[in-house]
Write a structure and sequence with these properties.
The structure is a single chain. 27% of the residues lie in helices and 21% in strands. It has five helices and 15 strands. The strands form five sheets. Strands 1, 2, 4 and 5 form a four-stranded antiparallel β-sheet that branches. The chain has a three-stranded antiparallel β-sheet with strand order 3-12-11, with no helix packed on it. Strands 6-10-13 form a three-stranded antiparallel β-sheet, with helices on one face. Helix 2 crosses helix 3 and helix 4 packs antiparallel against helix 5. The longest helix has 21 residues. The chain binds 2-amino-4-trifluoromethylsulfanyl-butyric acid and cobalt (II) ion (CO) (2 copies).
């Protein structure tokens, strides 16, 4: 039997990006020329599809980014100040011949984002002291040989209480649910839909103001990847797309406030917020994480 180029089902959005159902469009027709599809994605969505050599490069950057998180994790303990995490990440990155993407990015003053408790994201490392029972997100973006990989995890400081345990578990599983939707023919909307459904079912809320994003050639490329949404809506995924999924999940309400430093995003109700992020590649039949860790 001829290998089907698409297995998203007859009623799924056509992978050619027409917006029609597959059965009303390319089903039964000749396999679409990948080069044509890629040109169409560039023109229509400004999405730059990655080739084999690019994927190798992003994967190398990703391995270093993961190693950076692995290096930081055992250093996290009560009494540490967040600027010490910045120093660890900065020096480790340079030592491995890479550059920390956050430093001077749109005026960001440090080499890593460190977000404690009610801080949703973009926390600036400084004099804040980590206390027993806190949660802390460390978001590392590494540039190696011109390729970007973006990854983060939320860690416990000392012994977590029940709220900390819950929000970290729900955020981590939210990323898992989003990643599970990544395959050709599924859409960007399917990813957000799966995350929102899971997080809200567990009594948590999804941050709307920050989204996942294309990544690889630059820090932030199209498309945007919201962590909420409607099943079947949005751009159909095609092989060679590389983007992050990075749900920010709040224990309380979804609203946020940006502090006077213009970066730090905190929950308006001061509830705990946790996040996990990986950089994903759409493959012919599913996905591959370019910054893999167990979920
Ligand atoms: N790493 C963040 C992301 O996942 C972006 C941080 S932007 C910075 O997209 F300037 F704060 F570093
Ligand atoms: Co990101
Ligand atoms: Co990030």
């Amino acid at each position: 039997m001829k290998k089907k180029f698409f297995n998203g089902g007859r009623n799924a959005p056509c992978p050619c990006g027409s917006g029609l159902k597959y059965k009303k469009c390319c089903m039964g027709k000749r396999e679409p020329d990948p080069e044509k599809l890629q040109a169409e994605y560039a023109k229509k969505y400004r999405i730059r599809i990655k080739q084999a050599a690019d994927i190798k490069g992003i994967k190398r950057a990703g391995r270093l980014a993961i190693k950076t998180l692995d290096m930081v994790e055992p250093e996290i303990r009560p009494g540490l100040i967040t600027d010490e995490i910045n120093t660890l990440v900065h020096e480790f990155t340079l030592k491995h011949g890479a550059t920390p993407a956050p430093l001077n990015y749109r005026g960001f003053p440090k080499s890593v984002c460190v977000s404690v408790n009610e801080v949703i994201c973009h926390g600036i490392p400084g004099e804040r002291v980590l206390n027993d029972g806190d949660i802390v997100n460390v978001d590392v973006t590494t540039i190696l040989n011109g390729y970007y990989a973006d990854v983060n995890k939320t860690f416990f400081v000392g012994t977590p209480g029940p709220d900390a345990k819950k929000i970290v578990r729900v955020a981590q599983k939210s990323l898992f649910k989003g990643i599970a939707m990544v395959k050709p023919g599924n859409t960007i909307g399917d990813i957000g839909w799966a995350i929102q459904k899971y997080a809200e079912k567990n009594g948590c809320s999804v941050v709307r103001e920050f989204v996942g994003h294309g990544v690889g050639f630059e820090f932030h490329e199209p498309p945007q990847v919201p962590h909420y949404g409607i099943r079947g809506e949005g751009i159909p995924l095609i092989p060679g797309m590389v983007f992050t999924i990075e749900p920010m999940i709040n224990l309380g309400k979804k609203e946020l406030v940006i502090l006077g430093d213009k970066w730090t995003a905190v929950t308006k109700d001061k509830s705990l917020s946790a996040q996990f992020e990986q950089t994903l590649l759409v493959t012919d039949h599913g996905f591959e994480s370019l910054t893999p860790y167990d979920l």
